[in-house]
Amino acid sequence: MADEEQLKILTVQGPEAWNQWRIKQSVISPEITGADLRGTDLRDANLSDADLTGAKVDKHTSGLSSLSVEQRASLEFLGADGHPEDAPASDAPADEYEPDVGLVLQVLQTPAEILKGMTVVAALFMALLLEIELVIDQLEAMGVNGASLRALDEELRSLIG
Length: 161
Fold this sequence. Notes:
The chain is mainly α. It has one domain (4-160). It has helices spanning 4-13, 15-24, 69-73, 101-108, 112-115, 120-141, 146-160, and strands at residues 56-57, 76-77. The protein has a two-stranded parallel ribbon with strand order 1-2. The longest helix is centred in the C-terminal third of the chain and has 22 residues, at 120-141. The relative contact order is 0.11.
């Protein structure tokens, strides 16, 4: 069951307050199981490691494309009548892809002993790798396979010269 304090921060105060709370409470894994997130703006909310099992969402819930494939699969999509319906088609994401600020925050929350000695460039590279992993998860969810990506890569390389 969802933690009411955590849910209030996410749904009432919004992503910015949520991310600040996540920074202060970095050892706590968010518990949003079964929460009613219909109409909630999840864009830019750091939901990494959040348990969203059974959370209820609808077409007005924004930011779903930034969730991991596993998190999206665990959601309960509700129609306008409040009854369960199929998740949006994988070729029509719930909203357009946006870079995940939450991943950058995740890097910034990395324990100091790991970041010690890392340059800013290395920390940003780490964030980029996490971002690439998210994009790959989204492409796989959309049914894009390796052959399609290789063909696209070859076409781009020929255009670049």
